[in-house]
Amino acid sequence: MTKWLTKPLKTGFMAVAALVMLNSCAVVATGAAAVGISSVTDPRTIGSQLDDQTIEMKANAKLGNDEQLGDYRLRVVSYDQQVLLIGQVPNDGMRQRAEEVIADTNGIERIFNQVRVSSQAGLSVQSNDAWITSQVKLKLAANEQVSASDIKVVTENSEVFLLGIVGRASAEIAVNIARNVKGVSRVVKAFKAPR
Q1: Do residues 161 and 154 touch, judged by C-beta distance below 8 A?
Q2: Residues 162, 181: Cα–Cα separation, whole Å
Q3: Residue 162 contacts residue 178 (beta carbons within 8 Å)
Q4: Where is the BON domain (predicted)?
Q5: Strand (E) positions, 90-180?
Q6: Is residue 186 included in any domain, yes or no?
Q7: Which of 124, 98, 122, 123 is nearest to 111 (CA)?
Q8: Among 78, 92, 103, 190, which residue has the fewest nearby CB atoms (within 10 Å)?
């Protein structure tokens, strides 16, 4: 093969290889975006974020498919394999059952059972919860003493739950910020200490 033909072939192969690699990156990025991964701002690794989403999908499906619990509004939120279980049920037996149903979900390290024995939260309560969550997030983002991206905020029936991997000082600041948002009835921290 002549020398002038070899150089274009090498260049062509390199271009094809680069295109394949870029397409692979795009597929990974697209896949991560499709499942809600926010690795740029999230202190968890991408693997940990995927683990948390898998835990949430499996545990929420178990609750929804359970004959006794399927009609209740229960929700699982996972952060670094620490699971927050929230919602409302009519009695303590159902509250305990909710935890038992998800307990064997692969990957869960700890369950914070915060299910309340009360009537179901209506749409107006859920709408107010979304507003409270947005206000807490805004105030955390405006505070220079805490990293808002390290804290996940979940509101259920005016109770604010804070999850994340933060130190004691940051945890207390975050709790005080959330406590002072209008409409918050209680703040519950479910933080994990940094390693």
Answers
A1: yes
A2: 14
A3: yes
A4: 51-119, 128-195
A5: 110-117, 151-156, 159-165
A6: yes
A7: 98
A8: 92
What is the identity of the amino acid at 3? K
Q: What's the pLDDT score for residue 119? A: 87
CATH number of the domain encompassing residue 152: 3.30.1340
3-class DSSP assignment, residue 168:
helix
Q: Are residues 127 and 104 in the same domain?
A: no
Total count of domains within the chain: 2
Angstrom distances, CA of residue 8 to CA of 14, 20, 22, 117: 10, 18, 21, 72
Domain, as residue range, for 112 = 46-117
Residues 112 and 133 grouped into a single domain: no
Q: What is the pLDDT of residues 76-98, one digit of tens each?
A: 999 999 999 999 999 999 999 99
pLDDT of residue 39: 53
36 Cβ contact partners less than 8 Å away, ≥ 6 residues apart: 53
Instruction: Say yes or no: 151 and 96 in one domain.
Output: no
- In order of 19, 43, 175, the CA distances from 147 in angstroms are 37, 10, 13
User: Using an 8 Å Cβ cutoff, are 82 and 47 in contact?
Assistant: no
86-95 burial by CB neighbour count: b if 16+ within 10 A, else e?
bbbbeeeebb
Is residue 84 within 8 Å of residue 76, measured between CB atoms? Answer: yes
Q: Same domain, yes or no, for 134 and 82?
A: no
Amino acid at 166: V
pLDDT in the model for residue 114: 97
Q: Check which CATH number belongs to the domain holding 113 and give it.
A: 3.30.1340.30
